[in-house]
Amino acid sequence: MSGGEHNARAWGHVVDFFDHERATSAQVYASEWFFLKDLLKDGISVLDVGCAQGGFAGVMAENLKDFRYTGIDISAEMIAKAKTRHPQAEFHHVGESDWSAIAGRQFDLVLVLGILHLHESWRDTIAQAWAHTAGTLLMDLREHEGPTIEDKAVSSFRMDFGGDEAGAAVRLPYVIVNAAEALAVVRRSCDGVSRLSHYGYYHPVSGAAETPVDKVMANVWCAQR
Ligand SMILES: C[S@@+](CC[C@H](N)C(=O)[O-])C[C@H]1O[C@@H](n2cnc3c(N)ncnc32)[C@H](O)[C@@H]1O
């Protein structure tokens, strides 16, 4: 099984968690809303990378009369539920780092939320997301002042946070990026960025994380063309 297939299966353990989470404006984190509130404009096209059950289509619908939402996700189960919940939106099940389903397309707003710290090819994901961004890319990282940690044997994330005990043995990497490297990667990946901002807060790591680090900066980055 490839790393991407492993990760896609891992997310299968927490599909039901998204039945009731991350689907309304009230469930958007303060660090995300800080930027998102000013980016929601009628008529926009939105690409949501790692859309789970398409919760942000619901967030858009609460705030906008007119928008086009496209969600992509590596989990077939998430995408099946997303299509049922949001029949007016467009969804694609994709392979990790295979975005051929949306080849050549750009979107006014691209969201990459809650995934970069949980997969190995996160740098590539940022670069691909930027290539599909016509206007603004919003994404989050977990950062600290120490060296970047991305070895799953050192820092991992248990997939039992949705209540499925079988997920306890299934691990994703819990990637914590050195803050200076985070800035360098984002700047390098977002070629031609005209405005780059970030906003976040320092807080204890997720309860599902097994990592030598106690606290991380959960940082939302906003890159604009
Ligand atoms: C923690 S959930 C985040 C859902 C949503 N973006 C949010 O912020 O609420 C992560 C989702 O991203 C998907 N995912 C993880 N890595 C991915 C990748 N490299 N490309 C696309 N989807 C990915 C998972 O299958 C899962 O549905």
TrEMBL record:
Coiled-coil intervals in this record?
Answer: none
Do the record's keywords include Transferase? yes
Protein origin, superkingdom: Bacteria
Q: Which UniProt keywords apply?
A: Methyltransferase, S-adenosyl-L-methionine, Transferase
Which SUPFAM superfamilies does this one have? S-adenosyl-L-methionine-dependent methyltransferases
Domain (Methyltransferase type): residue spans on this chain: 47-132
Question: A GO molecular-function term, please?
Answer: methyltransferase activity
Any one GO BP annotation for this protein: methylation
> Does the keyword Glycoprotein feature in the UniProt annotation?
no
Q: Output the InterPro entries linked to this UniProt entry.
A: Methyltransf_12 (IPR013217), SAM-dependent_MTases_sf (IPR029063)
Protein name per the record: Methyltransferase type 12 domain-containing protein
Native source organism of the sequence: Magnetospirillum moscoviense
Q: What is the lineage of its organism?
A: Bacteria, Pseudomonadati, Pseudomonadota, Alphaproteobacteria, Rhodospirillales
